[in-house]
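User: Some background: our group keeps a shared notebook of sequences we're curious about, and every so often someone picks one and asks for a predicted structure to add to the entry. Today it's my turn. The entry only has the sequence so far, pasted here. Could you supply the structure so I can complete it?
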Amino acid sequence: MKRLTILGATGSIGTNTLEIVSLFPDRFAVNALCASGSIERLAKQVKAFSPKLAVVIDEATADALAALLPTDITTEILFGEAGYRAAATMESTDMVVSAMVGAAGLAPTLAAIEAGKAIALANKEVLVMAGEIVMQRAVARNVPILPIDSEHSAVFQCLAGHGRQQVAAIYLTASGGPFLKKSSHAIENAGVADALAHPTWTMGRKISIDSATLMNKGLEIIEAHFLFQVPPDAIKVVIHPQSIVHSMVGFVDGSMLAQLGEPDMKGAIAYALSYPERLPLGQIPPDLAALGELRFEYPDVERFPCLGFAYAACQQGGTMPGVLNAANETVVEAFLEEEVSFGRIPAVIETVMGRHTPVTNPSLSDIKEADGWARKCAREIIGQAA
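Assistant: Of course. Here's the predicted structure to add to the notebook entry:
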């Protein structure tokens, strides 16, 4: 029985993880559920899975959750950063599913690593912000980090049995999002509903916007750099609108391996939870004859400049990837609140990056300081444009 702490229980990854737990109750149990919002959903999850611990963002939200639960529920309710840390380091937890959105997932994930917990990683920002520190600590504690992102799970599966010295390149596939064939003018003036209308995947609001700008793929480049220890220029992005090939690895002998599957996150989640085994999920493999063809093309970096920003940040290293991430989180939140246009998202990120002098070999305090600075800078730029 593998006992789980789920950071980000009410989001897309968290809810899919709980579906897998429900399918295999003899293999998985839920120790702790953590969320920052969707309290009604969290209350239903607590009732269904009876975790030892539930954690929310603040005391008021903790009181609201308690009011939604029966008085005989034995689940302890905590809140805030101390609560997330407690959930991530529970002695009885075997694996922490790191699926919180954005920078908030860094501290509890690091705490889980220090506590020796296996990590199923969906929060790419953890590695974007502090990849070198996270990977060093994981190696020192002999903690496995198993990717949940479909692209990184695909690469992880393709690398099985192959040393890194055999790898020539990693190919991350991207659907292209809702604006793949749209003009620059249409992208510039896109509304929130337009940007959230992903053609193949069902995801949360923030990651859906990142997919629309291709920043999601940019963050995945940085994540892959740290996760698989390959240089940025050996990580390629190809647009694959059908989202059947989740990623590929090219080897030094000219051969290539690809991992295919329907666009459903349960496969990647289940593989991380059960590794090295595979669970009988009942999912049907892609019908290749019915598909007829699989299409690929290179991304247009002029229409989607965020991809180039990510490569630049990864090459510069230090605190720059974290600044990229913080600026993106801030401007995406502003776009979702209709405070800034979709077309302004790349401009804000580029301006923040241009004003930052990266710190090399940063400490955690350097990373946190740069993160805070970038958010403040982004908000000032957004305010000036309003």
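Suggested note for the entry: The longest helix spans residues 364-385. The two ends are 53 Å apart (CA to CA).
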